[in-house]
Amino acid sequence: MADARDVVLGRIRAALADRPTAAPVPRDYDTSRDVQDVVGLFAERAADYRAVVRRVRPRELAEEIDVSLRARGARRMAAPDDLPAWWRIGEVVWSLDEPGHPLSIRALDRSDGVLTGCAVAIAETGTVVLDAGEAQGRRALTLLPDYHLCVVRADQVVGTVPEALARLSPTSPLTFISGPSATSDIELDRVEGVHGPRNLEILIVN
Amino acid sequence: MGRNPVTWLGSPTFPSAARAALADTQLRGNLAHATGTIRTKRAAVVSELPDWERLRLAGEAIKDDVLANLDTHLTRLEAAVTARGGVVHWARDAAEANEIVLGLVRAAEASEVVKVKSMATAEIGLNEALAAGGVSAVETDLAELIVQLGDDRPSHILVPAIHRNRAEIRDIFRATMPGASPSLSDSPADLAEAARAHLRRKFLSAKVAISGANFAVADTGSVVVVESEGNGRMCLTLPRTLITVMGLEKVVPTWRDLEVFLQLLPRSSTAERMNPYTSVWSGVTPGDGPSEFHLVLLDNGRTATLADEVGRQALRCIRCSACLNVCPVYERTGGQAYGSVYPGPIGAILTPQLGAGTDDPSTASLLRSLPFASSLCGACYEVCPVRIDIPEVLVHLRSRSVTEKGPYTPEAVAMAAASWVMTSPSRFRLAQRLLGPLRLLARHGRVRRLPWPASLWTDSRDVPAPPKETFSAWWRRTRGPTSRASSGSRTRSRAPAPGRTAHSALWRRLRGRGTLPNDAGTAPPDTGAPLLGGAFADLVRRVRGGRRG
């Protein structure tokens, strides 16, 4: 029996016997857009998808994290081990996810929330993107806890999807997050809160 | 070639399935509500982007490049995924893909797998194949779960349970979901919560997950899954082994191409600026996610589709389902009438192509009926984010269906006879005189039922009643050389209005050309579109009689 790979590739070449030529891709769509207040737009769009969004000053970040955790009533928080130490504040037990000693799935599931930074945020779509880089940790970390508190620096916010992709490394594991988990599966209407974190809170620092 | 499970075994042809679906008022209510909601929302988010049409053109061009150089892109994808620790498998057809997946699941010593909603695995009947091999597959997408628990069939690409309303879903959950509270309410939030509780344990203990792919980047080996609920993230990150089954045509050449599709897809599909979660991974990342990644590249009729110069554009499809939501036929019959996991306008062109070559006669007649499941109104083409000219492919496949049936079907004979009559003015005039008395059978200007063999036509169409006086008779009486009324006079000033009215009415009719079952009520909203053949009969009527009143 011939190798499936050879057969399929052979079929493709036979199917293209008419040698169709593809026109060059027109890239005249907008890669960026003229937005007056990118950070403001991001805040508005993220909130539109039911994320809780607060804008805070850099000096007050730690306090504001504390405010969020208190409001949430969080007692056990998970975090990546490279999270800035001064973010780990408040009367909360912090569990660090270390590459050599990852938190168990059970421990993550039982934690009240997770605190991370992000790689990029997209204003037009209200999206934060995690790339497993600094202060973000592995993907499971931001998935199992029911509350995700995410710190976004103003300089991480770009206007459009093309601008965001240009900043990201395609081979890193990426997660684009737009609001809390949701579904449109019942009567095609969006309902927040299914398997992923049901509560997304974003602190924009500028 | 064996049966291709892209269709469900024993499904009736579209017209008979549609008849049953149309009688289901609950179904029609659910569909009208859901598609109406999504159409409005889609229009709003699309209008936010000033470059939407340019994005569509880019999306079309990227996909055309994918298809024109498919072999190159796939071998590059294979190399990139392999270089990053993934394993690439090739499958000629459904059976081979299922066998590969079952083998991988067994090697991982799992008896249960969690699944992210995937059209490719639905197309190949993977769940059934796994069950036959002793492995149970748990669908984790809410709508797929509703379908699976209800022992039902999907009816929409994006929302397979679109035909169910909240009360029906509550009843399914109460009856079949272990641990579901008997007092579970029908609020969508409570239903989502019930699904969350039900699946949580499965996610946390699963060893193997199976997914599809929305895109895979040839350059970098990055695979993309676009989802809403987080069930995708659970499947893609928690288990040790991840198996992704992907149609050949899902490859895109470069990372940059995603900037187009990540804008086109969410807005077209769930009418969101961005879906809640998009995951991207390439190969295996130590310490983050599965330690084993398998990518199964699936042909299953795709290369045969690629060989058709008109039909191959169906392979541009990114499975957004916008064409379903705007289709007047889909909105009334629902997805199950199409007999396939790919319903709606895209299904009407994709299913017959992917399933071509079936040796099962009833499947063959279903496949032949699908390209006729459309009014050719063109709404699907207008919303398609990759500009698939669905009406063009429908007409192309219709002509193939007609050719396949041969020249001696009743329809072909009738058409040949009509052509013989209509190519001669004297035969045409005679036919007009002979058919005039049909008027006596008409009610409200329409003939609904004729005796056999004309019943073959009127079973699914109305015939406009012949007028008392045909246009040519009127012309002869009022204007013609033998007419006393107009003798000697060539002035236009007295030309009566009916001619002009008839002309504009005819024009309106021809713009709304199409074929529709009359009882489906499937006319596009802005025209009273007659059938293709009906358009002709109408033309005859207009030419003969002008418009009364």
TrEMBL record, chain A:
<dbReference type="InterPro" id="IPR003741">
    <property type="entry name" value="LUD_dom"/>
</dbReference>
<feature type="domain" description="LUD">
    <location>
        <begin position="107"/>
        <end position="205"/>
    </location>
</feature>
<dbReference type="Pfam" id="PF02589">
    <property type="entry name" value="LUD_dom"/>
</dbReference>
<dbReference type="InterPro" id="IPR037171">
    <property type="entry name" value="NagB/RpiA_transferase-like"/>
</dbReference>
<protein>
    <submittedName>
        <fullName>LUD domain-containing protein</fullName>
    </submittedName>
</protein>
<dbReference type="InterPro" id="IPR024185">
    <property type="entry name" value="FTHF_cligase-like_sf"/>
</dbReference>
TrEMBL record, chain B:
<dbReference type="InterPro" id="IPR017896">
    <property type="entry name" value="4Fe4S_Fe-S-bd"/>
</dbReference>
<dbReference type="InterPro" id="IPR024185">
    <property type="entry name" value="FTHF_cligase-like_sf"/>
</dbReference>
<feature type="domain" description="Lactate utilization protein B C-terminal">
    <location>
        <begin position="411"/>
        <end position="477"/>
    </location>
</feature>
<feature type="region of interest" description="Disordered">
    <location>
        <begin position="471"/>
        <end position="505"/>
    </location>
</feature>
<dbReference type="Pfam" id="PF11870">
    <property type="entry name" value="LutB_C"/>
</dbReference>
<dbReference type="InterPro" id="IPR037171">
    <property type="entry name" value="NagB/RpiA_transferase-like"/>
</dbReference>
<dbReference type="InterPro" id="IPR003741">
    <property type="entry name" value="LUD_dom"/>
</dbReference>
<feature type="compositionally biased region" description="Low complexity">
    <location>
        <begin position="480"/>
        <end position="498"/>
    </location>
</feature>
<feature type="domain" description="LUD">
    <location>
        <begin position="75"/>
        <end position="284"/>
    </location>
</feature>
<dbReference type="InterPro" id="IPR024569">
    <property type="entry name" value="LutB_C"/>
</dbReference>
<keyword id="KW-0249">Electron transport</keyword>
<dbReference type="InterPro" id="IPR009051">
    <property type="entry name" value="Helical_ferredxn"/>
</dbReference>
<keyword id="KW-0813">Transport</keyword>
<keyword id="KW-0408">Iron</keyword>
<keyword id="KW-0004">4Fe-4S</keyword>
<protein>
    <submittedName>
        <fullName>Lactate utilization protein</fullName>
    </submittedName>
</protein>
<dbReference type="InterPro" id="IPR004452">
    <property type="entry name" value="LutB/LldF"/>
</dbReference>
<feature type="domain" description="4Fe-4S ferredoxin-type">
    <location>
        <begin position="314"/>
        <end position="388"/>
    </location>
</feature>
<dbReference type="InterPro" id="IPR017900">
    <property type="entry name" value="4Fe4S_Fe_S_CS"/>
</dbReference>
<keyword id="KW-0479">Metal-binding</keyword>
<keyword id="KW-0411">Iron-sulfur</keyword>
<dbReference type="Pfam" id="PF02589">
    <property type="entry name" value="LUD_dom"/>
</dbReference>
